[in-house]
Design goal:
The complex is a heterodimer of chains A (176) and B (180). Chain A is built from 8 helices and no strands. Chain A has 176 residues and is mainly α. Among the domains of chain A are: 37 residues; 42 residues. The relative contact order of chain A is 0.02. Chain B is mostly helical. Chain B has 2 domains: 94 residues, RNA polymerase sigma factor, region 2, helix turn helix motif (Rna Polymerase Sigma Factor, Chain: A, Orthogonal Bundle); 85 residues, Orthogonal Bundle (Arc Repressor Mutant, subunit A), CATH 1.10.10.10. Helices cover 76% and strands 0% of the residues of chain B. Chain B is built from 9 helices and no strands. The termini of chain B are far apart. In chain B, 34% of the residues are buried. Classes of the chains: A mainly alpha (176), B mainly alpha (180). The interface between A and B is large, with 35 and 46 residues.
């Protein structure tokens, strides 16, 4: 056991002294020609590879640079720790504001749609021509007549209920 | 030709960044590519990994403090990227691919003698079966001639550990070939 250990240590002594010694030791065990042949098989490169590699690489670097600029990652905003318990409340409040605001806005726009004709009518009355007004009055004259008759009836009933003294007083005021 | 340090300083001072970076790239691209290719064999994969390595260098060069040599830092990134790639490949593969061996056989076709070819194939297979760290240490020492301090820094071990890895790699390959 100790002999084997010594032998191993001796072998280790054969290496690490100089590069030439290490190479010589490897060649003594593995054959210099075979080692050389192995290296040749592993170190061939396609024709013109090294001449074109720098340009290809710089193009790739440039392209990746542009991609990095285009892809800007969104910043994540973290609330301070003392505010973190309020996260859910804040989110809920924001939700209510958005939903409520949308509801109010939509209702307003619906109200405007239904009342706009009435407003428009009030606004456009002044813009109506005399012909349009006359035709409207003619169409609605019967309503006006009814109104007049109604008023007259009211007045007649008032007059008929008056006594002679009240009538004299009214005549006096009219003659004045 | 300007040294690595000069090129890096100019790059960091935003003086002709692209030109200085390209100069650094041209100085080291072959060694980086070969280191990667010895590990992954396939050119397309080696090219992908090499590009990733250099893109990482471009992104991080401003922060490089020159506490170690630039090449040490560069090869360390190349080693890590290659390891990441190989780990992904292992997860995706269920059956080990023999394409590497076929490629080797094709490249060595017509060489010397049948026995020689068989030994070469055996060497290829033996090295491919080494643990990644031992494989890299062996290649960086034997083929690239790096000192153990640099190798240790690249693969993330001690100088003694790097020496032990080199020793174990050679012994394992020898043992595998003897079995043929």
């Amino acid at each position: 056991m100790d002999m084997e250990k010594d032998m191993k240590l001796n072998e280790l002594d054969n290496i690490g002294n100089s590069l030439e010694q290490d190479r010589a030791w490897a060649e003594s065990l593995l054959n210099k020609q075979n080692l050389s042949q192995f290296n040749l098989s592993k170190t061939d490169a396609p024709f013109n590879y090294f001449e074109s590699f720098p340009d290809q690489l710089m193009k790739r670097i440039e392209s990746e640079k542009k991609q990095k600029i285009n892809k800007k990652s969104p910043k994540i905003f973290f609330l301070p720790s003392f505010m973190q318990p309020l996260n859910r409340v804040a989110i809920a409040a924001a939700f209510i504001i958005v939903v409520g605001g949308s509801f109010i806005f939509l209702n307003n726009s619906v109200w405007k749609k239904t009342h706009a004709p009435i407003v428009a009518k009030y606004i456009s009355l002044e813009e109506l021509s005399s012909e349009e007004i006359e035709s409207y009055v003619d169409a609605n004259e019967w309503i006006a007549e009814i109104d007049v008759h109604t008023q007259m009836k009211k007045e007649n009933s008032r007059l008929s209920s008056l006594d002679e003294k009240q009538i004299e007083e009214i005549e006096k005021t009219i003659n004045k | 030709m300007a040294s690595d340090q000069e090129l890096i300083i100019q790059f960091q001072e935003s003086i002709n960044r692209e030109a200085n970076f390209t100069a650094l790239l041209k100085k080291h691209q072959q060694k980086v590519y070969y280191q990667i290719k010895r590990m992954v064999t396939d050119h397309a994969d080696a090219d992908d990994i090499a590009q990733l390595v250099w893109i990482k260098i471009w992104d991080k060069l401003d922060g490089f403090k020159m506490e170690s040599e630039f090449s040490t830092w560069l090869f360390r990134i190349a080693y890590n990227e290659t390891l990441n790639y190989l780990q992904k490949q292992k997860k995706q593969r269920t059956i080990p691919s023999n394409s590497d061996l076929l490629d080797y056989e094709n490249t060595t076709a017509g060489s010397d003698s049948p026995k020689s070819t068989e030994i070469q194939i055996g060497l290829e297979r033996a090295i491919s079966q080494l643990p990644e760290k031992q494989k890299v240490v062996f290649m960086l020492r034997y083929y690239d001639g790096f000192d153990y301090e640099k190798i240790a820094s690249i693969v993330g071990t001690t100088i003694g550990g790097a020496k032990a890895n080199y020793h174990q790699a050679v012994k394992k390959v020898e043992s595998f070939i003897k079995q043929l």
